[in-house]
Structures are given as C-alpha cells and as structure tokens.
Amino acid sequence: MKKTALFVTVILILSLVLGACSGDDTSGEDSKDELKVALLIPGTLGDKSFFDSANAGLELVKKELGAKTKVIEMGTDSTKWEPTFVDVSEGDWDIIISGNDTTELMNEIAKEYPDKRYINFDTFIEETPDNVYSMFYSTNEVSYLAGALASLVTTSEMELANSENTIGFLGGADTPGINDFLVGYIEGAQYVDPEIKVLVSYAGNFTDPAKGKELGIVQYNSGVDISFNVAGGTGLGLMDAANEEDAYAIGVDSDQAMLFKDSDPEKAERIVSSAVKRIDIAIFNAVEKHIAGELEYGTHNEMGVAEEAVELAKNEYYEELPQEIKDRIKEIEEKIKSGEITVGTAFGISTEKIEELRESVRP
C-alpha cells in the first residue's frame, strides 16, 4: 500500500511539473513580452483638456499597440511626486510617461535608472537625459491662429459680436509657458487688426473653474465678446461665463466644444474652436516608434502647425462660422507652414518685455 501511494504521489507531482512547463500556459511568456507603459499625471484626470488628452494617448497605446497600461493620478502636491516616480521606476514598466511640471524631477529620476525609458509628453526644457525622449508643441503658432480667429470674430457681423474690438485671454499663471500662448495670441490678433485690444487675466491656478468663471464674467462685462482659455480646468469656468453672458470662447489643448456637445449643447455652441495640442497622437506615435526601435532617446523634438501637432479644432461649430473667416484662417495657416509668417515666443525674453506687450494692447 505504501509503495502504491508513493507511486501515485510521484505521478501527480510529475504531472503538475510537466503541466506548468507545457505550451498550454503561456501567460508567463506573454507577460514578459507585453509592452508595459505607465502614465504619471501631475494632477488629476477630468480637466477636459491637457491631462485628459494625455490619457487618451495612453488609451490609444493600449487599444492599437496591445500594451499593458496604467495611469497614475499623482495630484497637485508636488512633494508626493518623487516617491511615485521612484516606485514606478523600480517596477517592471518598459516606458514611463509624464511631463510638464514633472520635467526636472523626471530628468533627475531618469539619470538614476539608466536602463528605463521615459517619454516627456510636453516640455520646453531642451536638455534631455540619454534615456528620455521629450516633446514640445509650438503653442505660440496655434495661439497665433486663435488670436487671428478671435480678431476676425470680434470684427465680424456674428450675432454675439459687439463693436468694442476687444478680445480676452485667461491664463492659468503668469509663466513663460502660458505667456508663449499670449505672445502668439496677440500677434495673430494684430495680424488681422493692428488696433485690437486684449484684456489679459491670470487665475493663479489651473484647477478652479469657479475662479475662471468669475474672471470670465469680468472680461465679458468689460466689453470682451470672445476670450481664450489657457487655464486648464480653471478655464472651464470661462465656458460657463461665455454661456451666461451670451459671448464666445476659444478652448485649449483638446476640442472642448465636443466635450460639451451632449451634456451641455448650449455651452458647446459658444466655443467657436479650440487651440488643440495633439498630445494623444504625439504619445501614440512616440510609443509606436519605440516599438520599432526608431525613437531617438536623448533628443528634444518641437512640433508645430507644419507637423500637424497643433491645430485649431475644425468641428461642426467651427464649420458654422462665416466662410470668409474660415478662408482667412486657412490662408494664415498656409503662411505659417511655409514660413512666410514667423511667430514670436515668450521663451528667452524678459518679464519686462512681456509686460510691455500686455500694456501695448490693454483696453
């Protein structure tokens, strides 16, 4: 009996071992070969703008490239970002994606983990470690188009346009990144109307829609009939203000009119277009190049109108604009692509120069 029991036990053990080694269970192999991509958001999703666009890129990576993905919302407390970066870097993620406010931290972390690969989806800092690929969007170029559009709208016969020839700009903060939008916006507006006035407001943050609405209402009550949101989540309040005050708005980063099309169609109709950064496509393209072994780590790539990395959203609301406005915008786009129009930038110029620019167009 003991010999029989021992024989059965041996057979069972051998069966288990052979079963574990057989080709029927390839989960370990699949897990090893599967590309793993993590996105670290320096904030939270739901901004209907910058971060949501990055997340859309990660979803494309998962759907189209079959990668295992994870998005981590790190919140706005920057003191908590470093432990998250370290934890993810010590994990088995093949690519770690983040950007914007995390740039300096990510570059330092990347140096400590040279075998990892990092993608920065948006930074103007050109110095890049050997294992980081960074991208920047020519926000001044798309803002030039937004400014031209705003100027064309305010000088048009459109229903909600007034006779003040004053447009608005709502920035999240008085920083070079936001002021790069401002420089392009003012230059584009002046290209259409050299006498245009621009009322500039800064909210001081990117996560307070109530503040954005408050500032938007002040602008619209001051004679502005169209204003440009460059304040992320705070700027969503500008859309509410435009709706309440019967005025127009221009969105940012993603096609914000389409985000409200179903939930609040009346608000969506107030958004004539958005200055879109194709962060989603940029992230997808970068990961696709990584897979093909073609992504040039250690480099910084700036993309603009010519590369179709930034654009005005030409949705159903944009198509309802007067044909002469759309024709003029197309003409200006072609001039930017060809280099006939060169757009200024806030990077590399003093705060005094920015203040001079703001004063030159103050109503």
How many discrete structural domains? Answer: 2
| Structural Rg | 25 Å
Q: How many beta-strand segments?
A: 12
End-to-end separation in angstroms reads 101 Å
N-to-C order of helices and strands: HHEHEHEHEEHEHEHEHEHHEHEEHHH
Described by the principal axes of the CA atoms, the overall outline is globular
What's the helical proportion of residues?
40-55%
What count of helical segments does DSSP give? Answer: 15
Estimate the mean pLDDT confidence: 90
Strand fraction: 15-25%
CATH class of the largest domain: Alpha Beta
Structural class by SSE content: alpha/beta
CATH homology-level superfamily of the largest domain: Response regulator
List the strand order in the largest sheet.
2-1-3-4-5-11
Stretches with pLDDT under 50, minimum 5 residues: 1-31
Q: What profile does the largest beta sheet have?
A: 6 strands, parallel
- CATH fold group of the largest domain: Rossmann fold
Known CATH architecture of the largest domain: 3-Layer(aba) Sandwich
What does this structure look like?
The chain is an alpha/beta fold and 363 residues long. The chain folds into two domains: 110 residues, Response regulator (Rossmann fold), CATH 3.40.50; 189 residues, Rossmann fold. Helices cover 47% and strands 17% of the residues. The strands form two sheets. It has a six-stranded parallel β-sheet, with helices on both faces. Strand 6, helix 7 and strand 7 form a beta-alpha-beta unit. Helix 3 packs parallel to helix 12. The radius of gyration is 25 Å and the shape is globular. The N terminus is likely disordered.
